[in-house]
Amino acid sequence: MPSGKETRLLHLSEMEKLDKTLFRLEQGFELQFRLGPTLQGKPVTVYTNYPASGEVFDRHKFRTLSWHNPTGKEDDSDKYCKLDLQISGSYQYYFSLGNEKSGGGYIVVDPILHVGADNHVLPLDCVTLQTFLAKCLGPFHEWEDRLKVAKETGYNMIHFTPLQKLGLSRSCYSLADQLEVNPDFSSHNKTCTWSDIGALVEKLKNEWNMLCITDVVYNHTATNSEWLRMHPECGYNLVNSPHLKPAWVLDRALWHFTCMVADGKYIAKGVPPLIENDQHLNCIRKIIWEDIYPKIKLWEFFQVDVNKAVQQFRTLLTQGKGRVCKMSTKSDPNQHLQIVQDPDYRRFGCTVDMNIALATFIPHSNGPAAIEECCNWFRKRIEELNAEQYRQTNHHQEQAVTCLVGTVVYERLAGDGPKLGPISRKHPLVTRYFTYPFKELTVEEEETMIHQPDKACYFMAHNGWVMGDDPLRNFAEPGSNVYLRRELICWGDSVKLRYGNKPEDCPYLWAHMKKYTEMTAKYFHGVRLDNCHSTPIHVAEYMLDTARKLRADLYVVAELFTGNEELDNIFVNRLGITSLIREAMTAYNSHEEGRLVYRFGGEPVGSFVQPRLRPLMPAIAHALFMDITHDNECPIQHRSAYDALPSAMIVSMACCATGSTKGYDELVPHQISVVSEERFYAKWNPAAHLTSGEVNFQTGILAGRLAINRLHQELGAKGFNQVYVDQVDEDIVAVTRHCPNTHQSVVAVSRTAFRDPKTSFYSKEVPEMCIPGKIEEVVLEARTIERNVGPYKKDARFINGLPNFTMELREHIQIKDSKIIKQAGTAIKGPNEFVQEIEFEKLTPGSVIVFRVSLDPKAQEAVGVLRNHLIQFSPHFKSGSLPDDHSAPILKTLFSSIASKLTLADLNQVLYRCEAEEQEDGGGCYNIPNWSPLKYAGLQGLMSVMADIRPKNDLGHPFCDNLRSGDWMIDYVSNRLISRSGACAEVGKWLKAMFVYLKRIPRYLIPCYFDAILVGAYTTLLDVGWHQMSSFVQNGSTFVKHLSLGSVQMCGIGRYSCLPDLSPSLHDVPCRLNEITNEKEQCCVSLAAGLPHFSSGIFRSWGRDTFIALRGLMLVTGRYLEARNIILAFGGTLRHGLIPNLLGQGTHARYNCRDAVWWWLQCIQDYCKMVPNGLDILRCPVSRMYPRDDSSPQPAGTVDQPLYEVIQEAMQRHMEGINFRERNAGPQIDQNMRDEGFNVTAGVDHETGFVFGGNRFNCGTWMDKMGESDRARNKGIPATPRDGSAVEIVGLCKSAVRWLLDLSGKNVFPFRGVTVKRHGKEETITYDEWNRKIQGHFERLFFVSENPADPNEKHPTLVHKRGIYKDSYGASSPWCDYQLRPNFAIAMVVAPELFTPERAWKALQIAEEKLLGPLGMKTLDPDDMVYCGVYDNALDNDNYNVARGFNYHQGPEWVWPIGYFLRAKLYFSKLIGPDIYAKTVVMIKNVLSRHYVHLERSSWKGLPELTNENGQYCPFSCETQAWSIGVILEILYDL
């Protein structure tokens, strides 16, 4: 991937539907779809309607994306398919699993806006928009003079309300003809055309650097639209929407009521034309309930004609249809009789389903009395149903009265309402819901027309909006009762348009609106979707697709009144809305206004540098933040005239698009009504003397607006994208915009005036402010002031503002020249931090002051030099960097070259080391106050924390607090490494030299630069590590690479060597000088069993753990020399034919395990096979620490033997039989073991060839939990003795015997077998014979046959699962042999020849069903009575089976056995057949994806020793365990 490309990763998860989540991307970004853990390994196909290169976008045309797997096929962690995003708009993706659609969502790609003759880019965050009501612009030839006001005050985008011919109401949004220019724009000698308007728009773009957008209104058209008369099907009329008939009848009745009230005919009943009080309202209620409702009987539209229905039913019964019906329709017993609504909505036109009726009411005979009785039952049921419809209608009528009275209160009584005065035909009681283009008749006569299609088609529903309604539901469609319940807040000048679901449903309307859209897109740079939330979403989708075909980078803005971000996102996603209009007028105080600024854009100041390749995060919609929209009430009435300037300033400091409405800057003291305003805007006149209808910089806040707009555009263009909002006091808001490259800031301090300063108290005392850094200049300071001129008079011809307010403005001055600041002092906070303390003198309500602040020069230089040294890690740091002439010599060298000198053992020191390892070396991990110590002392400890903090920019985290508060952590990181010698110290010195500059920058910037330095160093160090590993790792997936770091994590060298010394005659043994004796000593890496519990001292190295982990962690990763040294070091400690369990440097070894020697032999075999010239190890000298069982420890080199002799000794001793008592037996070496447990036995059964050993008081295999609870009486009793022949040891022995047989056949191994004394004479048992014995007996004695009468079964009564392999053979408690555990899979991997493939497969399937957990394998069958899946080592109670963690291996899910289980499945699936193999690979990848997720999320960057049942976290487990990581690497290697 080229370094400059921004790439976002979207992880797909099964069944995840993200249509309510917004993902915003920019053109030029690459989007990669990756498989989340639930999908890895599965056959996933991703589809998208983003067009292929050269194709045209079609919303309904989806294509599949092809998968790339850059590292091959071992796992799906890096598999991706991608989109190169080059076209703006909204695109959909979904994915399927096999043939099932599984999940999906949307992506929105922002447009790129171009302006000026040179087409330079206008970033979205630089937009400053002003709304003009088109009808107030006057004749077209005067537009330029009026629009010039916007140009001169620094706006770069104009929003025109619709420019079309208006309807009778003269509302800007009620259009009579969508295709015709408003004739008002034409003057007597010149007709205004669309091309004239287009030419002006083009001129504004090229000469004025301004873009123009206009509204598109899809929802309604003016009642008097000519085309609507020709095409009434375009509205919701009573022919195509007969469900509206009852609402129409009610609407007409209310109109007649209005007329009678207006004519004074209801005065007698208490309702005069002028409604003035509650008594009048109560009378209205009474009249509606007593006069109107009973007269219009709306319920009849929903009822059945009882007599007619009964007659029909009787006829069917008497004709004998009842019986026919009973036979013919097997009616559903759950179907009850219900009213079927008449589709034509006639009174009593509803029916019931006679089939259900006949099946429900059955006469007991055919006699007339029986039939009559049946008809009566039927009649009674119909009357019940009718009564239910009556009740339902009554509910609707109650709501209708409530809504009607509410409207009357608002329109005629409320203080904030329009106070319409007396009821008249012009101002009716309530707005009419339907058109009525005919002569008025009586209510009854009018009703006859609703069933005459030629008349009814002209009764159309008006549009409006419904409070709190679901915006995705169309309130005029059947199923909605909004019109009947009078819930619509209605626009009586507009008819709601009826599109249907597709163009074929209303061809004329779709074609007409498409033409309208194309014309708009042709002439304008963007559109505002009017009334977006109630525009049918599929219509808006279709129209915007049309518009984008003509103008790809269409700017789309909309206002959504959903009140719900998820709902907003549905609209933004489906329509590709660029910016959502947000209103500052919703803020009830300055604090809320400041919060909105922070909410709508920008990152926190001091944010971390994010990588170019990172997960795609959900976004909030881009905002067009307006100080006022044309719908808002006037802020001068609502707040005060003084607030215009500070609120405009606050809004303008938001890191998003901003805007205003014409009239705000001129301080017009009333709302400019979109319906009733007919005056024109003022023109621009720069001259000092203004006449009526002219404005210039002396008017209102125009001069301030220019400065504010300029500043907004500069901040957006220069990357000031970090925002901090400080509420100084209840009226003062300080907004900081910070540039993360130059670290310049602009701080705007605004004193709002939400309350009128003339009538409200404002304190003279303004708090001092501290501004960090050096104030370069005052960008602007401005105060709203009053002047002595006559009071405001509303001009008859022009829209005018308050003449008695203006502002003082001064720009680009020094602090000393400021009139608002009393004085500015400089305080030094810390060695490199200047803070300027500002004391205000005249920060009166309505004032603003803006500072440009840079860092102190020394800090500025330090940042520049730091950025210069960081360029080696990322080109991001080029901007703002400075050459470094005086830096430490070490910084002249690239970090990659310093790091390349580190060995993998050095990397263990630099990156890892847990608390116990560090303490052994005299140190410890860094402890963050109020939080916790880091997991590692090395860089990984810091990186794990920062990986959580960085994406969220969690700058309040205690980690960041600690960095800001002092240099402790910074010094710890470098000094810890410098104190070590060699290459590690060089890394420390490089860090220290970088930190010199880090310490010179302001504290608030330290977290982000500390992170940048460490991220650069860390990623370089990882590359250095991988470069020293095998090609499997170097070319491997991210998962493989991150697992391979487990090898660096676990393999290290401490201050004291853990391994016994190797033979002096061995080559390539690493050495160092002892710091105390100054003598040369060996320093081989040892492998920790797990962190943090098995990492240091004698508890670090364990024979069994080392050799289970060694193949994965050392051989697969290519660390051959270190693997050789570990094999030989342990070989040197062989005693009694065994390898120690706990190594204890050899001198304190415990020989109490039967399996470690077999794992050691398996590793030698793997070494010989995997390492180039691996067989050479057989001739390497092994220094025997115990040449005889009773020797005292011998120094290295005293007795050397070639490794093949040591191997032979181990085999020989087992065949002879091993029987000894542990040295120092007793509580000093094991405080829980009973006396018999210290007796160790092992041997080979001469008949079967099986290795056996142990007794019921010790545990010689990996399941080695010894009881510790006196209280539960399990102390000294092993939970899982596994004596006899444990299945995995038999498998490992078979593997070793087979291998030695093969080697001796090739004359590489000089022994053909082992000798034993039998009956006084020596006898040789060849490896061939031993091999055949095991082969011949294994399945016979280990397989639990499906046949209950199997003669090989010694204990048929103990069998409880068939088709499995026993866990052991010959245990002292025979039932233990039959327990289902995961150990047999180990034998399958090391000695697959022992198993019949079909039987093996069946056993593996049972294990999968019963034992497989999310991360590990249950150590015992959950059906077993002692199963317990939760390990709690601290719990001491009376329960024998769990006290003090007795169930360690009796259920908890251990991770390492899963590796052998999966490897066994992979091996045998190949033998079963290709289909099974393919399915197995999918299953394995899916299981491994969970390990990948755990590894990525783990702060230890490892896999645990075990989990509790179902993958739950176990606090007693090692957080990262060598064998857990090793086995997962092995299965990936096998894949």
Question: Can you characterise this structure?
Answer:
Helix content is about 35%, strand content about 15%. The protein has about 1550 residues and is an alpha/beta fold. The strands form 18 sheets. It has an eight-stranded parallel β-barrel, surrounded by four helices. Strands 25-31-32-33-39-35-36 form a seven-stranded mixed sheet, covered by helices on one side. It is globular and about 135 Å long.
Overall body shape: globular
Instruction: Work out the strand percent.
Output: 15-25%
Widest beta sheet: strand line-up: 12-13-16-22-23-24-27-28
**CA gyration radius, whole angstroms:** 43 Å
Oligomer: single chain
What are the segments in which pLDDT stays under 50 over at least 5 consecutive residues? 322-331
Helix content: 25-40%
The helix-and-strand class reads alpha/beta
The largest β sheet comes out as:
8 strands, parallel, barrel
Mean pLDDT rating = 93
